[in-house]
Amino acid sequence: MMLEKAATLLKDADAILVAAGAGMSVPCGVNYWDRHAFKHRYPGMAAKGFLYPYMLIGNGELYANKPLFWGYMAKMIENEHALHPEPPYHNLRNLIGTRDYFVMTSNADGLFARNGFDRDHILTPQGDMEFMQCATPCTHQVWPSETFLAPMRPHVDPATQELTDLTLIPKCPNCGGEMTLNLRGGDYFVEDHWLPKRHQLNAWLSDHITAGKRIAILEIGAGFNTPTVIRWPMEMLALRQPLVSLVRVNVEHPGARFEIPRERFVGLAAGVVETLEELCDRLKVPKMDPELAAHLAEERTWDCSGCPPRRAGESPLGPGMLPPGGPGWDGGRGDRDGADDDDDDEEEEE
C-alpha cells in the first residue's frame, strides 16, 4: 500500500528532487563501520590498531601524522572513485527517466556524478572530496583533489599506509600553507563555488512551482546526523508548497516531524536497494541486470561485528563530522533546536 502510494507520487510528478543522505552510499560500500573492507584495503592502518574508518574521524593523532594522514586519504579516495556502476544509482536514474531533476546531497563522495547524474544538477552543500582548499584559508579558490592525490599514490607504502615522499604533501598553490579537503567542518570551509548551485536549485524550484508543475521529492537515507541539511528542509518544502510531495526512504526513521498532508507524504521503512528495485518494477522502468547487481552487492558486503553500538539516529557513515547547515528554506532550522529527540521521533513516525 505505502509502496504503491510512493510509486504514484513519483509517476505523477513533472520533476524530481532527489535528496540523499548517508544511507544512499552505504549499500555501495561506503561504510565507516566496515572492519573487513578496512583491513583488506588498508593493512597498514590495521597494523597500527585502527579497526574501521569510524576510529579515524576527528582523530588528532592521525591528522598530526602527515605522512600517514595523506597516505590514507590518497588511497581512500581512490577506492571511492572505483564505486561505479552502483545498482541504487543506476535504478534511481532510470526512475527519473527524461524528466527534469535536481540532486541535493549531504554526501561528499561524488557517487552521483560518477554514476550518470549531471554535475550541473547536483548540489553538495557539505562539500565534495573532489576538491581541496587552503586550510587557513588564504583564498576562496579550490583545486581538483586529484591534482595533489594522484602523484602520491605510487609513493604510499601499503605495509605502513604512509606517504614516503614528503615533498608530495599538498601545499596551497597561493600561500604555500597546509591544504585540506573541501568539506564543511568549521569556519575555514570555502563554499563560494557552491553558492551559485544553491541559487540554481532555488530558481529551479521556483520556476517549476510558478509554472504549476508537480515536484516529487525522493529523499533517501537522510537521518538525524545533520537533519538541517536534508531532512527538515525537505519536510518544510513539502509542508509549504501544495505542488510538492515527499517520498522518504529511511529504514530507521521513515516518519515526519512536521505535519505534511497525508496525500503528499509517504515514509517507507525499507532498505534503499530493495525499495528502488521495487519502484522500478511498479513503474515498469528497467533496472540493473540482476546478476551484475548481485555481483556488485557481494563485493560491497561489510563486517561491523565488534564495533561499538551507534547512538540512536546516528549515521552508519560515522559521527557528525560536518556541523548543521545547508541551503535555504529556513524552516528546516526553525522550529527545533537541532537536537535529536528519540521519544518525539517514535511518537510522530507512523
Structure description:
With 350 residues, this protein is α/β, with parallel strands linked by helices. It is 34% helix and 14% strand. The chain contains 14 helices and eleven strands. The chain has helices at 2-12, 35-41, 43-47, 60-64, 66-81, 87-96, 111-114, 146-149, 195-210, 231-240, 272-282, 290-299, 331-334, 342-348, and strands at 15-20, 100-105, 122-123, 127-134, 142-144, 156-157, 162-163, 179-183, 215-220, 244-249, 265-268. Strands 3-2-1-9-10-11 form a six-stranded parallel β-sheet, sandwiched between helices. A three-stranded antiparallel β-sheet has the order 5-4-8. Strand 9 (215-220), helix 10 (231-240) and strand 10 form a beta-alpha-beta unit. Helix 1 packs across helix 11 (272-282). The longest helix is centred in the first third of the chain and has 16 residues, at 66-81. The chain starts with a helix and ends with a helix. The relative contact order is 0.20. Residues 302-350 have low confidence and may be disordered.
Main attributes?
disordered C terminus; 350 residues; alpha/beta; 34% helix; 6-stranded parallel sheet
Order of helices and strands: HEHHHHHEHEEEHEEEHEHEEHHHH
Number of strands: 11
Shape: globular
Compute the gyration radius: what is it?
20 Å
Percent helix among the residues?
25-40%
Main beta sheet, described? 6 strands, parallel
Summed over residues and divided by their number, the pLDDT gives a mean of 83
Low-confidence region ranges: 302-350
Widest beta sheet: strand line-up: 3-2-1-9-10-11
Approximate strand percentage? 5-15%
Look at the helices and sheets and give the structural class: alpha/beta
Q: State the end-to-end distance.
A: 14 Å
- Tally of individual helices: 14
